[in-house]
Amino acid sequence: MTEALEMTVGLRPPEEVMRLDRLGAAFPTRLSFMRILLRCMGHEGWRVEQKQFDLDDRGYGRALYQVTAPSATYSLIAYSQFLDPAERTDRVIAEAWDVTFVLFDGVPDPEDVERLAQEAPKQEAGRYRCTDLVLSRANKSLRLFNHVVDKLSQGVQPDEDLLIEIGYLMRTTAVYANGKFGLADRKVYADREALAAPFQVEMLTVYLIRCFTFDLVEHIAGQRNAEHAVPLDRAYKRYLGIGNATGLGMAPFLVSHPALIHKWFYARETALARIRSVKRASPAVMAHFMQVLNRCVRHIHEWSVEDKEQTRRIKTLRRESRVLQEWVSQIDTETGRPWDILYSRAALMFSLEGQEFLVSLLLEPYPDLIDDLADGLFADPEPLVNPAMTLQELVGILRERYDWVLAIDFDAPKADRYVWYYSEEKLEPRRGERRAEIGDEQEMAVATAQDIRQLWSVVDEMSEGTVATLLRAWPDFRHTVNRVQIAADHAYSELRDNLVGEDCRPVDILRAKLAYFGASKFDPKGDLWTRITMYQGAPLPEEISDSDDWSFPALRVSVE
Amino acid sequence: MNSFPDTKLDVSDAELDVTLQKACVGTGLDLGTGIELARAALTMRYAGIDPATVFASALSYYDTGDAGKEHDYISAISDGPSLCDDFIVKTNCGSNIFVDCPLIVLAILAARGCCGRMIMTDGDGDAVFGNYAFAMKDGTLSAALAPNMIELRQEPVDNSVANDRGCRDVSAVDAASWREICGLADRCLVSGSEESRLNDAGAGLVDED
Lengths: 560, 209
Prior knowledge:
The complex is a heterodimer.
Chain A: H1 14-17, H2 20-23, H3 33-44, E1 47-55, E2 61-68, E3 73-80, E4 99-105, H4 110-119, E5 132-140, H5 142-153, H6 160-166, E6 168-176, H7 200-224, H8 234-239, E7 241-246, H9 253-256, H10 258-276, H11 283-301, H12 308-329, H13 338-349, H14 352-363, H15 367-370, H16 391-401, H17 403-406, E8 418-423, E9 429-433, H18 448-461, H19 467-473, H20 478-489, H21 506-517, E10 520-524, E11 530-534
Parallel strand pairs in A: 6-7
Antiparallel strand pairs in A: 1-2, 2-3, 3-4, 4-5, 5-6, 7-11, 8-9, 10-11
Helix pairs in contact in A: 3-7, 5-7, 11-12, 13-14, 16-18, 16-20
Chain B: E1 8-10, H1 13-26, H2 31-46, H3 51-63, H4 76-89, E2 97-99, H5 102-111, E3 116-120, E4 125-130, E5 133-136, H6 141-145, E6 148-154, E7 172-174, H7 175-185, E8 189-190, H8 194-199
Antiparallel strand pairs in B: 1-7, 2-6, 3-4, 3-6, 4-5
Helix pairs in contact in B: 1-2, 1-7, 2-5, 3-7, 4-5
């Protein structure tokens, strides 16, 4: 291990990593937030218990799950209700859901449970307290949910093909935290070591929702036919995840948190560089890698979507994964820097999806080299402007970090086709055609390339002075100057593309973020939103351990 | 939007931060200024002062164009960040600065991590800032809320100037002021077009998966 930590291979540069097309081919890794959470739960021996399950024969009512960690207790309260099928939609403008959830900090007293029974079903229209950590909701995947209930109640297991095709019993459509609607701010729990990594309370909530879906489906089946109903097979439970529909609301986050984003991608690239620097692979590591690769090959064959472009990419990936199996079979323990050789070959011959898939795989057999990087994924508040910086220094950063802006043809007809804004309907970010009635104050600060270009042209004309001088004359550049200064020390802070141009596919931004969450089975529905699956293959509560080897699950034992 | 029937409302830091940023942008300020003012508002909250009342008033004043127009003082809302820039850059910064709301300038300076003292001529006001916090001499608050001539000095402060950044007991804000801020923030909103409705997550999809 010590030998491997001698870094002989550098990080992939940001000009390669931070392009949207590559970000839009990302896969979850050992550093994904779901993986971090489950590692922590296993390491610390968290206990998950169903404490209350007051649901009627149709599955409507309340349930409460309690998670006991060494230093804290968390509770998921679920409110399940009848939902008119006409109201069952993934859209953020929905106003009713099958089940709504709150993750509570501690053990709620009956008053809290009653209070949240009034608020949680209203979701964004409700009001929450600092004891309430996360707010979420989910809808049933009716086709699979009803099928599973039917089958279990008849005493048989569900159809495997349908499990593979859909992959989840319920699908979340929002998971809110960090102060939204009065929920607890992140600072309330950020100093708890187990929750220090980003989005850990959100990931815990989704994990518990997954537990609830299994209990719910078995409960309804049992109520329907107590005599013959059987529980869902453990292997099927393990395979099923939680679905999610994600739209544009998530995309601007990657733009508005440059220092944080740098930490995520810098960590992943550091991880890759460490693995590529490994001088020799031990037989045990080779065996582990091959085992994961073989599972991945089956996983990819179980990944099917309707989207034509993604289908094409998946087909290519299937082919490349077989090529990868051949290449790996040629590596032995005497091969010098085997993973660097493997990655370098892939970088020349594989699609972006194939390359990023390999990046994810390479990290798997080396927890000792990788997992410590999870400690560096959070960031303090984004730094503010340094007014003492000279304009010469500022130009220096522009030249070093933003040369990609120079390659954009801003005079092209569709270079500023789109505008990002907050929608009045649900206060969520949206992207639409630029239109006259959208004023400057309504345009979100997403057009980074355009902003940088304008700043650059102004700074070029000011021969000397400081940032303070510049901002005195041009106060509107304060935000852009701030970005540039952050980029000086955060090379991976910017999405290096024209985010308002015709060619921008927001779904690429979504995938980059969702992959870091740990999502898989990306199922894009056009360029603007995607479905995903979370926690597919993850251990059930009683199975959680330190091993953390559950990525890229497959139900079938062989590729047909 | 939520309705706010009470006189006080429990607002999270994140809500204060994001809403104030939007309110600033809604009044025509740039996002960078909005970010600094929002950070100042949080610093104010940690000092035990309700930032909603302070910023609702100041933003409204700025928004109507009254700030500095008929008077010879500057607007803390629009000029505060640059004033802070000058304080950082220059070693001898700031005497005889007539500002409409010294408290906002004080909070910006603290939020930026500056270290020093603010003297307010009227009302014998005196405040120190450092360690991302500020502290005022007793009786200074009223002087810091009204137009005042200020002097800014760079000087070290001790560790006694620090707030409990983790506290939540000052999270209630004046509901009426909060409504005003939300109203300004709402100017950033765009009503959905038919196109946007067609492109939302889940849109155009009729299935049972």
